[in-house]
Write a structure and sequence with these properties.
One of its GO terms (biological process) is heme A biosynthetic process. One of its GO terms (cellular component) is membrane. InterPro entries: COX15/CtaA_fam, COX15/CtaA_HemeA_synthase. It is a multi-pass membrane protein. It is found in: Membrane. With about 300 residues, the protein is mostly helical. It folds into 2 domains: about 140 residues, no CATH class; about 150 residues, no CATH class. It has 8 helices and no strands. Helix 1 packs across helix 8 and helix 5 packs antiparallel against helix 8. It is flat, with a radius of gyration of 21 Å. The two termini are about 30 Å apart.
Length: about 300
């Protein structure tokens, strides 16, 4: 299992890097750095030494390496853990979404895509990262036991049975799905270049509710959606601390989710404040890292709820 631990960890870290580099491509407008050629860059195996082409081609190269790692992890899981439906779901889910986002990225280079479709590219990459992360956490915490032949053994869950009410499970699943919607809207803001639609924070162009047209409407909807996510996560954190059966793992996960939500909103504000400055790229990339971590934590809490339902 040691080799599988390192392989799954490398896949998760790699998918996180792919997410980061994809955001860098978008923020630096390097998507056309290789023209309409794929997998070559402007018809060459080694691209011209321009910033845009190097950023785009580096993203492609790293994505290819990570794709191989994800494939190897899926094969290893099939060889060692195919008795575990959960491990197989995460391993082959990561492989599926890695291939899907790669195909979508290639099509975006060869054929112009709408902003709505390009926002899905980030969304699929995020799901690939989350499933890779969940597989890694499951393996490294001992949630899956290698088959010993015959019918094998049932997989353990880390920490044993996690107490969780049906209501709590539903709230967590709603928050996870809703967070994906917020992420998609954020990706849509980036691809439509609507970040400047709402200048100032927390007010939008000096108004509580601005005129909901064009870039302003898109940016404002994202802000409202983010506030809704904060309310959801805060309520879950309150229930985990005050109302739920004692579970240190659930409380810790809820606290991390709340912290990351607050930091994500703060980083969103810093993106607005840094518009037009040298800090803009850094704050935008930090925003992507934080929202990816938040989605990963919420997905893990959803898995805890799923396990509790199976056990209960």
């Amino acid at each position: 299992m040691k080799g599988l631990k390192w392989l799954s960890t490398a896949s998760a870290i790699g998918m996180g890097l792919v997410l980061f580099m994809g955001a860098l491509v978008t923020k630096t407008e390097s998507g056309e750095g290789c023209g309409t050629d794929w997998p070559l860059c402007n018809g060459k195996f080694v691209p011209a030494y321009t910033i845009e082409s190097m950023i785009e081609y580096s993203h492609r190269f790293v994505s290819g390496i990570v794709g191989i790692l994800v494939l190897a992890a899926a094969i290893a899981v099939f060889m060692r853990l195919r008795h575990s439906g959960e491990a197989m779901l995460f391993a082959f889910g990561a492989l599926f979404f890695t291939v899907l986002q790669a195909i979508l990225g290639a099509l975006a280079v060869i054929f112009p895509q709408s902003d709505a479709v390009m926002a899905l590219h980030f969304g699929f990459s995020l799901v690939a990262f989350a499933t890779s992360l969940l597989l890694t956490v499951g393996i490294r915490t001992g949630a899956y036991v290698p088959s010993t032949g015959g019918s094998g053994r049932r997989p353990r869950t880390d920490g044993g049975s996690v107490p969780m009410t049906a209501g709590m499970r539903r709230w967590i699943w709603v928050a996870t799905i809703y967070s994906y919607v917020v992420v998609y809207i954020g990706a849509f803001v980036r691809h439509t270049e609507s970040t400047g639609g709402c200048l100032g924070w927390p007010l939008c162009n000096g108004e509580i509710v601005p005129t909901l047209e064009g870039a302003t409407g898109i940016a404002f909807v994202h802000r409202v959606a983010a506030v809704g996510l904060l309310a959801l996560v805060a309520y879950i954190g309150h229930r985990a601390t005050r109302s739920e059966p004692a579970s240190a793992l659930l409380r810790k996960s809820a606290n991390w989710a709340l912290l990351l939500t607050v930091l994500q909103i703060a980083s969103g504000a810093s993106v607005v404040w840094s518009l037009g400055s040298d800090w803009y790229l850094l704050t935008a990339l930090i925003h992507v890292v934080l929202v990816s971590g938040l989605f990963g934590v919420l997905c893990y809490m959803s898995v805890l709820g799923w396990r509790a339902r199976r056990i209960g």
